[in-house]
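Report of the visiting student (M.T.), summer placement. My assignment was to run the structure pipeline on a short list of targets and document each run. The first record concerns PadR family transcriptional regulator.
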Amino acid sequence: MALEHAILVSLLEKPGSGYELARRFERSIGYFWTASHQQIYRVLKRMESDGWVEVRDVAQYGRPDKKEYSVAGRGRDALSAWLNEPTEPESVRHDLAVKVRGAAFDDPTALISQVERHRQAHTDRLTHYLAGETRDFGDPPPDGRLDAERELQHAVLRGGIAYERMMIAWLDDVLATLARLDTGR
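After the run finished, the structure tokens were exported:
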């Protein structure tokens, strides 16, 4: 996926400034696709010159005017074309998994602190996801149905929750294995 597509999706959800987009990437989109502020601004400039986004100046009181971006027709067409391209399943590249395998050739228990640190990071992210789910999807609408945008946002969030739970379970298994190896010495 190109950063352009993540930006288009975010702008279709809600138009915004480059700064606002960067904040969205920090809060939600960034868990699935990361980008620095500089990358976002550079890509927005290119998308504007390619006619994918439209820009309007928004006056602000007591602060400089800001540029608000929204998706133009060519941007919608580009996103539609990308959405209809086949996507290959992703391969997992996981440094820690290689270290766990390689630990058989060194002191396996030396990895315990790294595994615990990873486990804490995944636990923190799971807590963040669950809080977001409660905040954003805790009270179902009166008819019990979300619109397509919200339903798909929730599906992605549920995927993130399942992934974090799976990683925590795997890390618990690795820690148990390392503990068994430590007691077997």
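The radius of gyration is 21 Å. The chain has seven helices and two strands. I thank the supervising group for their guidance throughout the placement.
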